[in-house]
Amino acid sequence: MRHLTADYLREVGTEIFRACGASPDEANVVASELVETSLMGIDSHGVIRIPQYVDEALAGLVRPGAASRVEKDTPTTAIVDCGWNFGIVSAYRLVDVAWGKAREHTTACVLGTNCHHVGRLGAYVQRLAERGMIAIATVNGSKLYHCVTPWGGREGRLATNPLAYGIPTSTQPIILDMSTSMVAEGKVRALLHQGEKVPSGCIQDAEGNPTTDPKDFYGPPMGTILPFGSQLGYKGFALSVLVEVLGRTLAGLSIAEEGKEYKLVNGLCLIAVNPDAFCGLETFKRLVDELSAYITSASPAPGYSKVRMPGSLDFETRAERLETGIPVPDKTWSLILEAAEKVGASIISL
Amino acid sequence: MRHLTADYLREVGTEIFRACGASPDEANVVASELVETSLMGIDSHGVIRIPQYVDEALAGLVRPGAASRVEKDTPTTAIVDCGWNFGIVSAYRLVDVAWGKAREHTTACVLGTNCHHVGRLGAYVQRLAERGMIAIATVNGSKLYHCVTPWGGREGRLATNPLAYGIPTSTQPIILDMSTSMVAEGKVRALLHQGEKVPSGCIQDAEGNPTTDPKDFYGPPMGTILPFGSQLGYKGFALSVLVEVLGRTLAGLSIAEEGKEYKLVNGLCLIAVNPDAFCGLETFKRLVDELSAYITSASPAPGYSKVRMPGSLDFETRAERLETGIPVPDKTWSLILEAAEKVGASIISL
Fold this sequence. Notes:
The structure is a homodimer.
Chain A (H helix, E strand, L loop, with lengths): L1 E3 L1 H14 L4 H16 L10 H9 L10 E3 L5 E5 L5 H19 L1 E7 L8 H9 L3 E8 L21 E5 L6 E5 L6 H10 L8 E2 L5 E2 L2 H5 L5 E2 L7 H15 L18 E8 L7 H16 L15 H13 L1 E3 L1 H14 L7
Parallel strand pairs in A: 3-4
Antiparallel strand pairs in A: 1-12, 2-3, 4-11, 5-6, 5-11, 6-7, 8-9, 8-10
Helix pairs in contact in A: 1-2, 2-4, 3-11, 4-5
């Protein structure tokens, strides 16, 4: 484990993505977002993804520099064909489109097609909130990732389908970024490697029986992950269906024909609402601050030190890691160096 | 327990609300919606509410016939001052406003202020979905109902804050209508009266300790209800915060000043997205049907007979109850007759 500064990791990432064929600007966008995610403590979606994105670029699954095209454009809606550029570049493009529409016309709903992995979904609602919008975002996945059962089922029909929102305040936004499943597949894999159990109520074996053994999940035959909500999991299932509809169906993409015309890794949908059309942004921020103060004034329950607003812990982690550096496991670091070598990026290894 | 037809209960309800001072049309809207809710099996929000609404009208908390006024109007947004008419009348007004805007301008976000109890939230996303819109709805409650803790807290800071969505299909819409808490307060009260326990993980005593005894919840001192999600309850908490912000803050209402200027029982927010701006409504419905077929093709897990789409069970109950009648407990029926008498409504008791 080494601790590396955000600046250094950003330079490394930018260099690597440039060597993949991205423009300096776009390479910087991808690297900066991954570093930002690591800073916030969400290591599963941070710099650990550099080698994955490099491999996918080399395999032609990501097309660095590809242009995006706004289709089906109305004053408040659009479908953006992302052209298989890096998903993070595409998602930032969607943020710009949604923001422009909501600024002019007070609401917006924007979808991306041909969109690669967008990374941390919370990033995009955060950017919109920082630019004064209430934002809701959803992202689904292709059938390949359908390891989550519908409620009462024993076969996967949905991905972990996260949803996120961002709300402007006078300081950092309130952010939720949640999967609609009980656990991420990557988490189950990590527990398998560590020889540990999965918390009960998260996974099923291939027969649909509850289990805590990650081996039962990986099979073969493969097991499944349960929708979020434990005994109320029909709620998580239903939220997941909405994510799937906004990410795929609304764009006109058929689930039955996914194999024939592969247009989806991540189906991203952004909805933006402009507080200026209601109470006005400044009043809104002040009233949200007041609400946060009211909520966090609740005494903590036994075992908790204080009540926090959604997302605030991530911003605290960010402040800490800006001081102490980002912890990068040796394995991750060697994979990043390997990725650099594959594309011929010249980076100075620390 | 008696079984009464929907037609009869609708006539009874309409007669009663007319006697409260509502116009024939508005009386019919309120009665029809309560009966519809009972038909769907959601008895907690159905005809059982007739006596409550009558008492509140008699106390001046509901103002039958009050006009609504569209304020802060833009092509895609509005705040509707509902004037304390019956919440169901107000919510239907919001549905009309949201639908008109989304039809013309493809997206809409509409809020209500001075809005009384709206009943079943799912009703309004259902109406929008039946009129071709993807709809999201949230409704919060005044401080009086703040019995739900934030994550890690032991004092109530939120109401049960439901959220709902509706998605058009070629037949009945897909509907989610979920509270963002583990259990409704009314459910805990019912269990108290029945001398039964609350399922574990739903409530806390006043000290924030887990309990299953409804007496610990009612105290005094009062306990609290936990946010939806069990060990992942920070997700339910965060969803609840969004509901609160959309229902109150966005309209410019201060939580700190709630006592001073009482403008809220239910803060309703409707967001509508028009599929015509994306793949087109007919294509959309066909692709949603296809998605539903794919999802429900999953084999059931042990203990389940089949996989269903969200909301489909309610429509099945509706079909059954149209045949068999709506079951009305004696106590509920006598309270309805009492309410009729209070306002001098002449109804023929069966």
